[in-house]
Design a protein that fits this description.
mainly alpha
């Protein structure tokens, strides 16, 4: 017994990088799969597509708040969020591609490139996540979330496609800020994963870490869609 190796994170039920990677890939596969469903349905019936868009946006907001403030971690809620998010992303992407041909693959490539770039910058130390950095970025995210809700209401009431700023320089500036904020948020996700592994968080926590990473990636993708569509106009 004494000659056996020491118990590792897997043996003690602690979160590992493999756990996070596998959960992230699983949730991402759900988003892509149901995104394809949302795309096909929206292309066949734009009215149902609009319902998926609006319903998905509201449902992800509600589910996101429940997941964030629920005292116990719920895997079914996280999986359900990925399904609804996929339908929403598919419907939105189909609409943008119809209106501005070519923006979807461009936004997808930009999102992948930004993710890789931010990961490398974080790993080599170009971006250092400190307590102050986390506070500032978190406050900016909350501030932008409030602005996004107000902007959505303004766009619906005034029938303006992008809300404040429209497709002018102000609108493009807002989109650039949103893309930058979503990009920096990836560093927070990377840091949270590393800290969870270092502190020996429970293995089930990997679901929440994967969920947070997917949410940020989708947010970044949506902001790239809006940016490229504004620039196209």
């Amino acid at each position: 017994m004494y000659n056996q190796p020491s118990a590792g994170p897997v043996d003690t039920g602690r979160v590992t990088m493999d756990d996070v990677i596998m959960k992230t890939m699983g949730l991402f596969a759900l988003v892509l799969g149901f995104g394809a469903v949302g795309w096909v349905v929206s292309a066949a019936n734009p009215q149902i597509g609009f319902m998926l868009w609006m319903g998905g946006m509201i449902a992800t907001l509600i589910l996101g708040l429940v997941i964030a403030f629920k005292k116990t971690l719920s895997v079914p809620l996280i999986v359900g969020y990925a399904v609804v998010e996929g339908l929403f992303v598919g419907a939105v992407s189909q609409f943008f591609e119809q209106q501005w041909d070519g923006v979807v693959p461009l936004a997808a490539m930009a999102t992948a490139g930004t993710f890789i770039g931010m990961f490398l910058a974080y790993k080599v130390g170009l971006i250092k996540v400190t307590a102050k950095f986390r506070r500032i970025v978190t406050m900016m995210i909350f501030g932008y979330a409030i602005f996004a809700v107000i902007n959505f209401i303004f766009a619906m009431v005034t029938n303006t496609p992008f809300g404040f700023g429209g497709t002018g320089w102000l609108g493009i500036g807002i989109s650039l800020f949103a893309v930058g904020l979503a990009s920096v948020s990836l560093a927070l996700d990377f840091d949270m994963i590393e800290r969870a592994i270092a502190t020996g968080a429970p293995q089930k926590y990997s679901w929440l870490l994967a969920h947070g990473l997917i949410v940020t990636v989708v947010w970044l993708y949506i902001e790239f869609l809006r940016l490229f569509a504004r620039m196209r106009e």
